[in-house]
Amino acid sequence: MRLDNQEKLRQKLIGVIGKVAPGTELREAIDRILEVRSGSIIVVGTAQELKPIISGGFRINCKFTAPRLYELAKMDGAVILSRDLKTITSANVHLVPDPRIITHEAGMRHRTAERVARQTGAFVVAISERMNTVSIYIGEDHFTLERLPLLLAKADQALQALNRYRVQLDKEYSHLNTIEIEDMVVLREVIKVIQRNEMVTRIAGEIKFLVAQLGKDGSLVSLQLGELMSGFEELRRLLIKDYMVEADSASADSVIYNLERMPGDELMDDALVSKVLGYKGTLELMNKIVRPRGYRMLSMVPRIPISVIDRLVERFDNLKNILRASPALLDEVDGVGERRAFAIKEGLDRIAESIIMESYL
Question: What are the structural domains, with CATH classification, of the chain?
Answer without folding.
Answer: 2-145 (3.40.1700.10), 146-292 (1.20.1260.110), 293-361 (1.10.150.20)
